[in-house]
């Protein structure tokens, strides 16, 4: 598939898990891809090699999404080194769980910095580079709509905020031909939430399909939203959760 030939994408947190799956799918569809990582340098290098093996350009940028200046620089560097920016995927996130009376201010501030402020800063920076047909796609979570276990208040709050950001940006950037959408994954088989983990059976049981997603399942929806075929989809919240929220 070459539906994204000539496009440049930036995937934050693209070194592993869902982010890596998205980076590779966008490259398979023709895009050159930049990705950010905080500590996973070896994994980022692996994704870069796989993107390049597909004949696309790739760029790995070390950036802590809790640092607004680093987020801004990653966006600007992508546009400068790869020549343009067409697609921003806000994927980087932190998953800090615990009872509301046990999580402290440090956990609160890091969660909001990475899960809420960073997507806003990245979108603000990207808006200066995106042209007609530009795409901003954020990765939320199924627990933004349905928190089935205790201890998810902080994380759920941070992911729910992305729905408001998505709708507001869709209105603001729509006149420029830029679409903004939110994808909410359900339980997905990654190294931080493996499908064979100790609580996986219970978690999978909350879905209608009774199983975890693969990163490629989430990436397929993101890739569609990035194409011209999705030009009339904006301000949308798309649940890719196996029926978790049904």
Automatic annotation (TrEMBL):
**What's the family?**
Belongs to the short-chain dehydrogenases/reductases (SDR) family.
Instruction: Report the GO molecular function annotations.
Output: oxidoreductase activity
**Mind telling me which PROSITE patterns this protein's record contains?**
ADH_SHORT (PS00061)
Q: What is this protein called?
A: 3-oxoacyl-[acyl-carrier protein] reductase
UniProt cross-references to InterPro entries, sorted A to Z: KR_dom, NAD(P)-bd_dom_sf, Sc_DH/Rdtase_CS, SDR_fam
Q: What Pfam families does the annotation carry?
A: adh_short_C2
Return the SUPFAM superfamilies for the record. NAD(P)-binding Rossmann-fold domains
Q: Source taxonomy lineage?
A: Bacteria, Bacillati, Actinomycetota, Actinomycetes, Micromonosporales
**Per the UniProt entry, what species is this protein from, by scientific name?**
Micromonospora krabiensis
Entry keywords, A to Z: Oxidoreductase
Tell me the ranges covered by the Ketoreductase domain, including all copies.
7-206
């Amino acid at each position: 598939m070459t539906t994204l030939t000539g496009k440049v994408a930036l995937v934050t947190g693209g070194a592993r898990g869902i982010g890596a799956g998205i980076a590779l799918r966008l490259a398979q569809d023709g895009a050159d891809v930049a990705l950010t990582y905080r500590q996973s340098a070896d994994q980022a290098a692996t994704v870069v090699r796989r993107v390049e093996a597909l004949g696309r350009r790739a760029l790995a940028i070390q950036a802590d999404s809790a640092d607004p200046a680093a987020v801004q620089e990653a966006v600007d560097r992508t546009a400068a080194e790869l020549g343009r920016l067409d697609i921003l995927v806000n994927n980087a996130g932190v998953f800090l769980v615990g009872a509301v009376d046990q999580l402290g201010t440090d956990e609160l501030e890091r969660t909001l910095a990475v899960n809420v402020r960073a997507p806003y800063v990245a979108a603000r920076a990207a808006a200066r580079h995106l042209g007609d047909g530009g795409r901003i796609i954020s990765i939320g979570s199924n627990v933004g709509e349905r928190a089935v276990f205790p201890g998810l208040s902080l994380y759920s709050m941070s992911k729910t905020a992305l729905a408001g950001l998505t709708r507001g940006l869709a209105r603001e950037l729509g006149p420029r031909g830029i679409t903004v959408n939110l994808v909410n994954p359900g339980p997905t088989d990654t190294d931080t939430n493996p499908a064979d983990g100790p609580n996986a059976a219970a978690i999978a049981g909350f879905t209608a399909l009774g199983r975890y997603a693969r990163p490629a399942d989430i990436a397929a929806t993101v890739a569609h939203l990035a194409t011209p075929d999705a030009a009339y989809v904006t301000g949308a919240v798309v649940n890719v959760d196996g029926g978790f929220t049904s």
